[in-house]
Design goal:
Layout (H helix, E strand, L loop, with lengths): L11 E6 L6 H14 L4 E5 L5 H11 L7 H25 L3 E5 L2 H8 L3 H10 L8 E6 L6 H5 L8 H16 L4 E4 L4 H21 L1
Parallel strand pairs: 1-3, 1-4, 2-3, 4-5
Helix pairs in contact: 1-8, 2-3, 4-7
The protein binds thymidine-5'-diphosphate.
The site of thymidine-5'-diphosphate has 14 residues, from helix 4.
Length: about 210
């Protein structure tokens, strides 16, 4: 099947955000599948990335017994982001594809931007990150984390962290940085709501 891709250098960059257990990975994967079924050339990617720095994050930072200093977390996520952009996101966009990224800069702001000073600094060290065309936040109350916290997979999965992170995401929604989607509904409904946002964007952007 002939894929719809745009001219070189004119791909579309979409990212999907949410607290741990918000269903964003399932939603992002479904969205990519739906886009491909419509004939768009779309790819799924995620942060932490699959690159060397992403692996350090997964093995050393997230699977430890306690959290590393926030400054260290912020730096390593930012370093992984540079690597991810240069080796994955930018080349895919240059090939005209739709890149759907599971977590991005907004995660660093929500998880590591814990004070005004940290927030400013996190923004500063991520200044060179490409701005997404569409940034979507799936909102769920932290109660959905309860089961997951019992099976705790990472240092981030505590009640306090998730509650604070949700507030930080909602603040980014109020500031107009993220589009909100209700996440406490069926997986199908979440994917459909995201699909609508993306379709609207694509109608506008592929028309020109
Ligand atoms: P993720 O892979 O989405 O976790 P899971 O697959 O278990 O849902 O994300 C891993 C964790 O990394 C998540 O708790 C959020 C955290 N994180 C940050 O703290 N800052 C960041 O910049 C990113 C990208 C992730």
């Amino acid at each position: 099947m002939e894929m719809i891709s745009r001219d070189k250098g004119r791909g579309v960059f979409i990212c999907i955000e949410g607290i741990d257990g918000s269903g964003k990975t399932t939603a992002a994967r479904r969205v990519v599948k739906a886009l491909m079924e419509k004939g768009y050339d779309a790819v799924y990617t995620a942060e932490p990335s699959k690159g060397v720095f992403g692996n350090i994050v997964k093995k050393s930072i997230l699977q430890g017994t306690k959290r590393f200093p926030k400054v260290l977390e912020a730096v390593i996520f930012a370093v992984d982001r540079v690597d991810h952009i240069e080796n994955e996101i930018r080349p895919q966009l240059n090939a005209g594809r739709i890149v759907v990224c599971d977590r991005y800069l907004y995660s660093s702001i929500a998880y590591q931007g814990t004070s005004r000073r940290m927030l400013e600094w996190v923004r500063e060290i991520n200044k060179h990150a490409i701005k997404p065309d569409l940034a979507i936040y799936i909102d769920v109350p932290p109660e959905v984390m309860v089961d997951r916290i019992k099976r705790k997979k990472s240092v981030m999965e505590t009640w306090e962290t998730q509650k604070r992170v949700r507030e930080a995401y909602l603040k980014q929604v109020r500031e107009g940085q993220l589009e909100i989607v209700e996440g406490n509904v069926s997986k199908n409904d979440v994917a459909q709501a995201i699909d609508h946002l993306i379709s609207d964007y694509l109608k506008k952007s592929y028309a020109c």
